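Design job #97: recover the sequence.
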């Protein structure tokens, strides 16, 4: 088991290629992949490779890297998808809406008049997620 992996953590499994994901970017500190239940077209998650439950268990270096990567992903969404706006959101604790307890930030393209549910209700088809990830990779 990798040093930072937590048992039964879906994001650690994605990082370790034990679970599938449409990966948009990866470096030593961070992985970015398509949200499987997207709130909008292009909804991406910026995830630290180190397993910390939330912002309080995440190093300042990792938080900085996530912020910079969220900007890069926003720029790629702007270029590839021309949204009217981009929402960046992050939840700590179940009471705040956190459902996966491995620190991450949502980068969500928004369009005028399109309603948002914070957690998408419908799982997207893997091939749709991969097509979206490819679009974003191409302009990153
Ligand atoms: P939250 O913890 O509330 O910030 O949200 C966790 C997000 O992870 C939700 O938007 C889920 O749709 C998303 N998610 C859960 N499991 C997976 C998965 N296997 N692959 C991609 N995204 C996921
Ligand atoms: Zn984890």
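Job complete. Output follows.
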């Amino acid at each position: 088991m990798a040093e930072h992996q937590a048992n039964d953590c879906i994001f650690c499994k994605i990082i370790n290629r034990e679970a599938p994901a449409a990966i948009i970017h990866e470096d030593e500190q961070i992985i970015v992949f398509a949200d499987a239940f997207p709130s909008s077209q292009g909804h991406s998650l910026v995830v630290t490779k180190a397993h910390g439950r939330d912002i309080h268990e995440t190093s300042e270096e990792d938080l900085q890297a996530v912020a910079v990567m969220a900007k890069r992903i926003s720029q790629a969404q702007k270029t590839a998808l021309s949204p009217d706006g981009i929402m960046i959101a992050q939840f700590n604790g179940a009471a705040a809406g956190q459902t996966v307890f491995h620190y991450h930030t949502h980068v969500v393209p928004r369009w005028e008049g399109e309603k948002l549910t914070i957690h998408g209700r419908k799982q997207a088809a893997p091939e749709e997620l991969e097509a979206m990830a490819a679009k974003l990779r191409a302009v990153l």
